[in-house]
Amino acid sequence: xxxxxxxxWQVRDEWFDWCGQVPFEELIRTRIGGVGSxxxxxxxxxDAEGSWIGALAGKPDPKPNFEDYxxxxxxxxxxxxxRDEVKPFLAHWTSALEDKTISVDWNPGDVFTYxxxxxxxxxxxxxxxxxxxxxxxxxGLQPVSANLIGRNL
Amino acid sequence: xxxxxxxxWQVRDEWFDWCGQVPFEELIRTRIGGVGSxxxxxxxxxDAEGSWIGALAGKPDPKPNFEDYxxxxxxxxxxxxxRDEVKPFLAHWTSALEDKTISVDWNPGDVFTYxxxxxxxxxxxxxxxxxxxxxxxxxGLQPVSANLIGRNL
Lengths: 153, 153
Prior knowledge:
The structure is a homodimer of 153-residue chains. Helices cover 56% and strands 3% of the residues of chain A. By secondary structure, chain A is mainly alpha-helical. Chain A starts with a helix and ends in a 15-residue tail after the last helix. Chain A has a single domain (2-138), classed as Up-down Bundle (Four Helix Bundle (Hemerythrin (Met), subunit A)). Chain A has 5 helices and 2 strands; from the N terminus they run H-H-H-H-E-E-H. Chain A is globular. In chain A, 39% of the residues are buried. In chain A, strands 1-2 form a two-stranded antiparallel ribbon. The model of chain A has no long low-confidence stretch (mean pLDDT 97). The first copy, chain A, has helices at 2-19, 24-27, 38-56, 72-91, 114-138, and strands at residues 101-102, 112-113. The interface between A and B is large, with 36 and 36 residues.
């Protein structure tokens, strides 16, 4: 389970680096699809992972506000802080957790297994990063590689 | 391992259904990012899974040509045929396969583990589907849901 999270973390850090070549107004420009802007989409994947995996790990929902993280360095720091919070839990993932169930405030009335939540969070980020890749090409820039092979994960 | 493939197969079938509402010329129109068009991107994920997972399962590379599958029904049939070929192998995936290694014609000189190849193929499709979602919004259409939760996988 951890490998795909490590993939997302490595790719996400490369997107933060990628942002360094892009004017701020392009990072927050409203675009078609996704959560609306490059920076907001990056914030959204950080926020979603922190909420969902934090919930599995028994932590309160951190609920950060985008307005407080409209800055690449601040957002990268938030991303690393959230990762440090959830990594020990994911590193000790066992098959015994797969069918354990959880309910969360933001999906009232639903019951999910830990296995489906973990995979949901993995797929959620990869999907949004695919959107970033289109916006990168629209800016005339090479997107971060989505390849998982060759990353020594 | 199988769950994320089942997710991709379900989402992919929903994208084939989604194509039914879109004029053919929009499906093959060259777009920014991805493999260049909606239909070619769908062909590409089918082709990549057939090649990579087929290789892990010890099958020859099928090497289909896009020109022969520029039709949603034909491509859906190819997708189902390839899935039927690789599903038994994935259904019997065990941790013993994780570190087994393979080399493939299309990445000469590289050696990959089965574990990284399987996850590469999973991430590859989810990433490209994220691109489809942007193009769908550009067409004014609701994209297929990328949610993994709630699919009973």
